[in-house]
Amino acid sequence: MNAKNNNVATAKNVFAILGFIILLAIGVWSAIQVITFVPRLFSDTGVTSNTAIDLGDKDIVVQVSNDVVESGDPVNLTFAHTGNDTGVLSFSYECKEGFYFQIDDSPIPCNAPYSLPTTDTTLEINPVSANELTDVEIAMTYTNAAGESVRDTKSLQVLSTSPIVTDAENVRDDTSVETATSEPSVTTTTGEVSESTNGPREATSVVPTQYNTPYTYTYVPQASNPYGDADLEVQMVAIGDINTYGSFEAKGILRTYSTGGAIFRVTNRGTKQSGNWYFSAMLPTRGGYPFTSGAQRTLMPNESVEIFMTFDQLIPGTHTFSVQIDQSNYIYESNEYNNAAQQTITVLGY
User: Fold this and answer.
1) Is residue 124 part of a domain?
2) Is 258 left (phi over 0), alpha (psi -120 to 50) or beta?
């Protein structure tokens, strides 16, 4: 009887040992899978992105082509990270007043991730600044499917030669700076400006003689309060078409073969300079595509600019020309409810 009990106990011990070995094997296999999934968090032999950058003991590394650049000059980022292609790779930068980055000629919001394919190893960014000197931190972040993130940051110094008016007596003597537009079928023109010497100069009604010339900024001698707020306001001035003499003629009814035109005014009603800004316009043309401008020069308090746009390929019916400034809210303003304007236009099909 004792021998039988001993045999049963031995069998139980053998099964217990086998069970422990099986559990140990499962645990080792699971650990290997986790290490494979998040390689650099646990091991120095994990998979890395395809690049010549040496990661060393880091999980992600980003390099900049130049850490001191001029506003408008592109900066090339080169980066590498651990992990596979199942995660999320993103670029971001801190918010700085009067500053933003462009990627592919489009402004990128600050403190917001700009997603990239995880297979990418380079990125070109374009800094745009209205300040003489801006120190900004940029970051590249990789997040795997489990939500674990690694990040590398770099500091960038951006210089700008844009004039910044701080006193009314230091305003430049010239009255305009011309900026050309590259968008086909959308042009701008210069308006007539009053020459009042007893106060800020105000733009009068625009009567352009040519519609293929650049638009003009009107400088107004007003100081910027560094503790104030900007307030960009847009107003429609006129809508019409280009007559046979090449002049703009304000009217509300056009024909499909006409070249339409619209004039709107942007004014800084605040107490602080605006910094660079953008505008977008919805045109009453075939396809109804939205037009997005390039970076516009900063506007001082009470300074305004009138912009003249032309467009063809009109479609019959009643439409609305609409324009919006600072659509992505890059500029902190005291009033965000005056950033859009519109005007109705009727296009006849005969």
Assistant:
1) yes
2) beta
Task: State the pLDDT confidence band at 206, using cuts at 50, 70 and 90.
Answer: very low
Indicate if 193 and 263 belong to the same structural domain.
Answer: yes
Query: Do the strands 122-129 and 133-143 form a parallel or antiparallel pair, or are they unpaired?
Result: unpaired
Q: How far apart are CA 28 and CA 239, in angstroms?
A: 74
Q: How far apart are CA 295 and CA 308, in angstroms?
A: 16
- Which CATH number is 125's domain given? 2.60.40.2410
For residues 66-77, give the mean pLDDT: 91
Mean pLDDT over all residues of the chain?
A: 73
Q: Is residue 50 part of a domain?
A: no
Contact assessment for residue 60 and residue 52, using Cβ atoms and an 8 Å cutoff: no
Composition of the chain by helix, strand, coil, percent to 5: 10, 40, 50
Kindly report each contact of residues 241-246 with a partner whose C-beta sits within 8 Å and lies 24 or more positions away, as own/partner: 242/211, 242/310, 246/209, 246/210, 246/211
CB 91 within 8 A of CB 139: yes
| CA–CA separation, 38 and 70 (whole Å) | 39
The tally of domains found in the chain comes to: 3
Q: From its phi and psi, is residue 161 left (phi > 0), alpha (psi between -120 and 50) or beta?
A: alpha
Tens of pLDDT along 96-123?
877 888 888 877 777 777 888 888 889 9
Six-digit token pair at 104?
């592919």
Residue located via tokens 């003629």 = 249
Phi and psi dihedrals of 143, rounded to 5?
-125, 125
3-state secondary structure of 189: coil
Domain termination site, one of 159, 190, 224: 159
Q: Residue 281, SS3?
A: strand
Determine the structural domain holding residue 70 and report its residue range.
60-159
User: Residues 64, 67, 70, CA angle at the centre, nearest 5°?
Assistant: 115
Q: pTM here?
A: 0.42
